[in-house]
Amino acid sequence: MRFLVTGSSGFIGTHLVRALVFGGHLAHGVDVRSPDLPQNVPAEHHPIDVLNRGALHSLFEQFRFDAVVHLAAGVGPDQVVADPYHTVAVNVAGTQNVLDAAGRYSPKARLLFTSTSEVYGLCTNEQFNEDTSSLVLGPSRERRWCYAASKIAAEHLVLAQGGTVVRLFNTTGPGQSEEYVLPKFVGLALRGEDIRVYGGGSQVRCFCHVKDVVRALVTLMTRPRIDAIDPRNQVYNLGSNQSVTIRELAQRVREQVNPNVALLQVTKPPQGSLTMPYRKPDLSKIKAAIGWAPEIPVAAIIHDVMRWKLSGGTV
């Protein structure tokens, strides 16, 4: 199959492109950044911004893709707070541009869009279900909510065109920046710096290895559509069901990476952070659709991130 992956130079995109190539597929990447892939991963890179509608149409007209995985997004808590306008533009207008080009030049292509667990917002359920949990966001004056709101809007666009939506829950692993909590904790411990836990660290999260996530994405896009449940036009949670509090995560990192560093509790969370008490997915729907379940435990994720950092950042 000929794949187009937008956001191909990002954390998940890099892992996905490599998995597609090693799986025997043709992979084309769209990203404004240059890819950081080994030479044995022959993927074609296109330096296109998803906000460039004309360039996207030209690309789709040339290659007529069999499958499109739309990862490109305005992401990262710091970037979202600093530039909410760009976040919304990329997540909504960028998604519409990709869908328009696909609809015109690759109308039979499989479409998959990666959304986020943040769309559940202030939902009070201890476990989030795609079809029954309410999506309750905070006030629009708080810039951090623009990310979740724009992802919800993009979900509607994708579903209207018959695509598949996956809501990612705390995907992490080798290659992720220290703007995210697990690699940040590992990086601090490796440097011998104290690990700061904000707001008491009682928030419950479920960390999923990027390899598990990529395995699910590839399966959703390549599995023959002869099942009782057709993955198209559906929303799936995608993540781990291993719950851990942020404080427990910090303790595990300290034990595995550097027991000599201290854990410091900081009462006031950093600007732009979200403090929802629970973010745990109900995974029954994706398991029924493609038989997928996460396999890699938190201890192994910490080990892989540590090994990646010690190797100099080679994914």
Tell me what you see in this structure.
- With 315 residues, this protein is of the alpha/beta class.
- It has ten helices and 14 strands.
- The strands form four sheets. A seven-stranded parallel sheet has the order 3-2-1-4-5-6-11, with helices on both faces.
- Strand 5 (110-116), helix 5 and strand 6 form a beta-alpha-beta unit.
- The protein is globular, with a radius of gyration of 19 Å.
Shape descriptor reads globular
Please provide the ordered H/E string of secondary-structure elements: EHEEHEHHEHEEHEEEHEEHEEHH
The number of E-state strands comes to 14
The largest sheet has its strands arranged as 3-2-1-4-5-6-11
Helix amount: 25-40%
Mean pLDDT, all residues: 91
Distance between the termini: 24 Å
Class from secondary-structure proportions:
alpha/beta
Count of alpha/pi helices: 10
Unreliable segments of 5+ consecutive residues:
none
- Content of β-strand: 15-25%
Largest sheet, strands/sense/barrel: 7 strands, parallel
Radius of gyration: 19 Å
Summary, kept brief:
39% of the residues lie in helices and 17% in strands.
